[in-house]
Request: fold
Amino acid sequence: MTDLLSVLPYAVAGWLLLWGLYGIVTSKNLVHLVICLVVMQSATYVLLLAIGYKSGAVAPVYADMPPGTPAVDPLVQALMLTDIVVEATVAALLLALAVQAHERGGSLDPARLARLKG
Reply:
């Protein structure tokens, strides 16, 4: 049972990655494509949580902890916060590009967008 629980977060991360990739490949709408990319990026959250988890460990606040107490790695938490900021920035930029493509091309379907002239 504990072996299954140790593999489960990695399986969930892989499932989210594949589900988002499937959505990107089959997308007929630019907004749907951006949402599927966000789902793909959320797989990295689950992966970072799985990597940084340590059974029986406490938060990495070392103020009143006796020496030798196991703590989770604070670097993984910092990477996760960075990942959230990057995801929000990428999603906002892609949604702004989708709005501009709709205004200039007349559609959100990538196959039906008129050729844009620079």
